[in-house]
Amino acid sequence: MAIVELERQGGVAVLRMNNPPVNALGHALRVDLEKHLNEALADPAVKAIVLTGTGRFFSAGADISEFSLGVREPHLQPMIGRIEGSDKPMVAAINGTALGGGLELSLGCHYRVVGKDVRQLGLPEITLGILPGAGGTQRLPRLVGVEQALQMITTGAFIDAVKAAKIGLVDKVADGDVVAEAVAFARGQIGNPPRRVGAIVIDKASIPAGLFDKARASVGRHPSGPVAPNAAIDAVEAATLPVAEGSALERKAFVETNSSPYARALQYKFFAERQAANLPGIGPNVRLRDIKTVGILGAGTMGTGISLAFLNAGFPVTVVETAQEALDKGVARIKETLEANAKRGRITEAQANDRFAKLTPSLKMEDLAQADLIIEAVFENLALKKEIFAKLDKIAKPGGIIATNTSTLDVNAIAAETKRPQDVLGLHFFSPANIMRLLEIVRAEKTAPDVMATAMAIAKKIGKVGVQAGVCDGFVGNRMLHAYTSEVYAMLLEGAMPREIDGAMEAWGMAMGPLAVGDLAGLDVSYRIRQERKLTGEAAQFARIPDKIVEMGRHGQKTGAGFYRYDADRKRQVDPEIEALIRAEAEGLQIKQRHVPAEEIVERCLLRLANEGAKILEEGIALRASDCDTMYLNGYGFPGWRGGPMWQVDNVIGMKAAAEKIKAYEAKYGARWRIAPLIERLSKEGGTFAALDKSRRAG
Ligand code: 3HC
Ligand code: NAI
Question: How far apart are CA 355 and CA 272, in angstroms?
Fold first, then answer.
C-alpha cells in the first residue's frame, strides 16, 4: 500500500497518509505527499482537497530519528506554504492524534475538521529540545491568539477536540465520520476565497502587556534546558511580522536549537524510554495476562500512592491493611489527594468521585482473592514479606501476578516462599507513586516472560515508564544512587558544605541536590538500612555525618530539620550548626578540609553514577545503558536535557576521558573509585555505551 493515497470523491481529492505506526512525516511520506499534492493541485477536475490520516493518527509529526542525521528534501515548511497558497479549498480531516509537524500540516490547510474523540493535539517540539519548525510558531498564534499559542508551544501540552474548538484551533468537531464531514465542508467552500491562516494579521494591541518578558523570566529551570524555550518565545513574538519573515526566523531557530546538545539529549530520551519497553526474547506475540482488578497490601506512603496511580488509570483497587486506624488513614489520604486534584482543576469533581468509588478498603487479605495483580507495599522487612507471600500464595487466584514494592530486599527469596515463583516480580514504584513516572520492573530468576510483558504494558497504562532491572542490592536505580550519595558524603568530609553540593548540582540542572533530596525523602529511612548493615571502614566513616544528624532528631523536612532547617512553608535554610558538625567530624578524622569547586562536585557525582551504571550493565542487571539513563531521567530528577549519566559519558565527557578521570580518582581515593571493566574496555576500543546498546539490539 502506498504511504499516501489519493482518492477522488466527486470533485474532492482525499489525500490519506498511511505510515504506521504513527504517521510520522518521514522522507518517504513527504515524497509521496508532494507527488499527490501536485497531482491534485494540477488536476482541473479536483475542486477541493481533504488531507487526512489513518487509524488513531492524523500524524505524530516529523520523524524524530531524521533530526540527528539531517532532514532531506522535500522539506515540510515549503510544502505547507504551497498547501496554504492553494486556490482550491484545503481542509484537514483530523481523524486522530495531530502533533508537531502533523498539526502544522493542518494549520497550513484553510480549514480543520476534527473527530470528537481526538485527545492529542499539540506542538510538543519543546520536549525534544527544538521548536516547531514548519510554521507552527507563526500560524498557531494567528489562529488561537498569542497568549494561548505561547502557552501551548512553551509547554508542549496536548489539548483535546473540545478545547481545540473552544480556542478556535479547529472549525468543526465531527460527530460521525470525520472524512465524510470534511469532504462536505470542503464542497461548501468551493468558489469561496481561501482562508489562509498565514494571512491573518495579529493586532499587537491584543497581546497582554509584558507577556513575552514574563515568559522569558520564567524559563529559568525549564525542563527543556536553556536554549529551546527562549528560541520558541522569540519565534512566537515574531508572529506579528509578515508570515514569510516570521517563518524564516522560525526556520533559523529550528536549525540552531536542533544542533544543540540539549536537543540531542532530549531526542535520545524520547527513544530511550520507548526502547526500555522492548524486552529481549519476549516478542509481540506473547499473550499478556488480563489485568482488570488490582489489590494493594499496605496503605502507608507507598500503598496509598500506588492505589492512586491505578485508580487514576481507571482500575478498581482493593487496599488491605492490618488495623482499622491505618486503613482509615490511608483511605483518607487517597480521598484528599483526589479532592485536591479536582480543586486544582486537574480532574473534574465527577472524575474524583468515580475514582474514589472504585476503591475497596479491607482488613482481610482474603479480599485479594479476585485481584489479577497484587502489589505488596508493607514495611521493609524480609521476614514479614516472606510470611505475606506464603499467605498470598494460598489466597491469590491462579495466574494472578504477585508483586513486591521492596526497594532493597531479595525478590528471589520472596518469590521462593510461593509455589508459583513464575508469577512473582518486583514492581518498584518511586515516591510519590502517583506522580513519579519511573517504574522499575524487577525480573526475578523465575519470573515468567508473559508476567514481564504484562508488567511493562501495565506500566504504560498507568502512565509510567517501565524499565527492567535484575535482582541485586538496590536493583539499578538505588544501586547507582548509593554510589552517588557515598561520594556526596565523602565530599562533605573533604569540605564541601551541603549548600555547595546541592547548589552545584542544581545549577547544573538537577531538580534537587542530593542532600535536599535526602531531607525530602526522610533521613531516617537510609539510617535504618545503615544500622542493619553494620558498616565498616570507609562506608562507616561516610555514614557518620548523616547518622549524627538523624540521632539529633533531624529526620529531614518532616521534622523541620535535616541537612538544612526548614521554615513553615518548607523552604530550606542553611544551618550553621550542621556546617559546624561537618567541620568537627572532619577534624575528628584528621581530614584537612578544602574548598571543593562546583565543577569537581558535578564531575565526581556524574562519574560515580556512570561507573556504577557500567558495572550494573556488565553484570546484566540492566539491559542497556539507555535504561540506566531512563531511570535517572524519570525517577531521580536528572534533567532530560542532560541526557542521563551514561549519555554524558558518551557525548560530553568522552569515554576515554572518563576512564582517565576515574583512574585518577581511584589513585587518590581508592577502592570506591575502582573503574568498571566495561568503561576500561570501551575506552580502549574507542567504543560508546550507545554503540554497545545498538550491537546488543542487533545481536
Ligand atoms: N518520529 C519517529 N518515531 C516516532 C514518532 C515520531 N514523531 N512518534 C512515535 N514514534 C515511534 C516510537 O518511537 C515508537 O516506536 P517503537 O515502537 O519502535 O518503539 C512508535 O512510534 C510508537 O510510539 P509510542 O510507543 O510512543 O506510541 P503511543 O501510542 O504511546 O504514543 C504518541 C503516540 C503520543 C504520538 C507518541 O509517540 C509521541 O508523543 N510521539 C512524538 C510526538 C512529537 O513529539 N511530535 C513532534 C515531532 S517534531 C516535529 O514535528 C518538528 C516539526 O515542527 C517540523
Ligand atoms: P509505610 O510504613 O508508610 O507503610 C507500610 C504500611 O504497611 C503500614 O501502613 C502498615 O500498617 C502496613 N502493613 C504492615 N504489615 C501489613 C500486613 N501484614 N498487611 C497489610 N498491611 C500491612 O512504608 P512505605 O514507605 O509505604 O514502604 C512500603 C514498602 O515500599 C517498603 O517495602 C519500602 O521499602 C518500599 N518503598 C518505599 C519507598 C518510599 O519512598 N517510602 C520508595 C519505594 C519503595
Answer: 32
Are 415 and 536 part of one and the same domain? no
Our count of domains for the chain comes to: 3
Mean pLDDT, all residues of the chain:
96
Same domain as 595, residue 559: yes
Alpha-carbon 492 to chain mean position = 31
Mention every residue, 6+ apart, whose C-beta is less than 8 A from residue 178. 52, 93, 94, 95, 113, 114, 115
Measured between alpha carbons, how far is 497 from 508 in angstroms, rounded to an integer? 17
pLDDT in tens, 71-116: 899 999 999 999 999 999 999 999 999 999 999 999 999 999 999 9
Q: Catalytic one among 84, 104, 237, 500?
A: 104
Atom of ligand 1 nearest to the CA of 274: 19
Ligand 2 centre to CA of 388 (Å) is: 13
Q: Which of 172-186, 272-286, 365-379 has the lowest mean pLDDT?
A: 272-286
125 given a catalytic annotation: yes
Q: Could you write out the DSSP letters of every residue in 529-591?
A: HHHHHT--HHHHHHHHHHHHHHHTT--BGGGTBSSSEE-TT--EE--HHHHHHHHHHHHHTT-
Distance 67 CA to ligand 1 centre (A): 13
In the predicted structure, residue 557 carries a pLDDT above the cut 80 = yes
Q: Domain containing 47: what range?
A: 4-265
375 in helix, strand or coil? strand
Cα of 456 vs centre of ligand 1, distance in Å, is 18
The helix or strand, by DSSP H or E, that contains position 373, with its residue range, turns out to be strand 373-376
> Ligand 1 in contact with 305 (CB < 6 A)?
no
Residues 381 and 324 in one domain: yes
Pocket test for ligand 1, best of 57, 64, 128, 250 (most atoms within 8 A of CB): 64
The catalytic position among 34, 125, 500, 612 is 125
Task: Please say whether the beta carbons of 417 and 390 come within 8 A.
Answer: yes
491 and 424 within one domain: no
The set of residues, in sequence order, having a beta carbon less than 8 Å from that of 618 and lying 6+ positions away, is: 676, 677, 678
388 and 511 part of one domain: no
User: Which of 469, 499, 523 marks a domain boundary?
Assistant: 469
61: CA distance to ligand 1 center in Å? 8
Locate cell 508537531: which residue? 100
ω into residue 677 within 30 of 0, thus cis? no
- Is residue 349 annotated as a catalytic residue, yes or no? no
484 and 430, same structural domain? no
Place of cell 558518551: 650
> pLDDT of 1-33, one tens digit each?
689 999 999 999 999 999 999 999 999 999 999
Residues with CB under 6 A from ligand 2: 297-303, 320-322, 326, 377-380, 388, 405-407, 429-431, 521
